[in-house]
Amino acid sequence: MSLERRRQLVQVARQHDALIITDDVYDQLQWPAQRPSTSLSLKHAVLPRVVDVDRELDGGTDRPGVDGFGNAVSNGSFSKIAAPGVRCGWAEGTEKIAHALSQWYDCFVNVRMALLIKTQRRIGTGELEKHIVNTLQPAYARRYHSMMEAIERHLLPLGVTLPQSDRDVIGGYFLWFALPRPLLAEDIARVAKEEENLVIGQGLLFAVYGDERTEDLERQVRVCFSWEEEDRLAQGIERLASVISRMLDGEMSLPNRDALRDWAIAHDCS
User: Fold this and answer.
1) Does a cis peptide bond (omega within 30 degrees of 0) precede residue 182?
2) End-to-end CA distance of the chain
3) Read out DSSP for 71-93?
4) Exposed site from 41, 48, 106, 115, fewest CB < 10 Å?
5) What is the pTM assigned to this prediction?
């Protein structure tokens, strides 16, 4: 999301007295999008988070006429930057928001306290920051570039398109792309699992109920580059390309969705 878009989002939240809760668990896992690059890691974020924008925009959270709670909260997680088993996180916002959250007692806090203490020590010594910059960011960057090269080689010639392909910075665990028409992600995911033992995320899994833009997700696919071994990522994309190619060539029939819809209506399946 661009800086201008983040500012607009904060302005809308202020207009409607709404609270934006941002999932910033991947915020510290960023790297240059272009390869080759002088570095596969970034010590500083390129863009401010939404919670940072809220602090500074037009007088910030202490501007006259507001209650000081702010309109944004940032969620973070040590499970993404320390170790998967460190199931502890934090929320960042204004002092008033932090105080309000502190009044809510987590019944599991005693169980997690040992993990928090150990993590705090790693933060204090600088060990965690070094782990992020020297280990995690370069590792995920290599995986990302490996998968991107396979996508460019095997999927783009089939008509697959990448959103925001001109970004300077990339981060996180996942890649999204859109399938060529008339293919639908639900069909591709099913066939990929049945024929290639390949699991991908079809866009409708991430739809928000009632969102008018749900149809935009019907052709969207999400793939993960953080789980499998690096040398298997290109193989997975090649197998996915095989499925897409066969369906485009008509070797696999697409479901008759009109017939399925009529059947569902006749049997009152909603």
Assistant:
1) yes
2) 35
3) SEEEEEETTTTT-TT---EEEE-
4) 106
5) 0.79
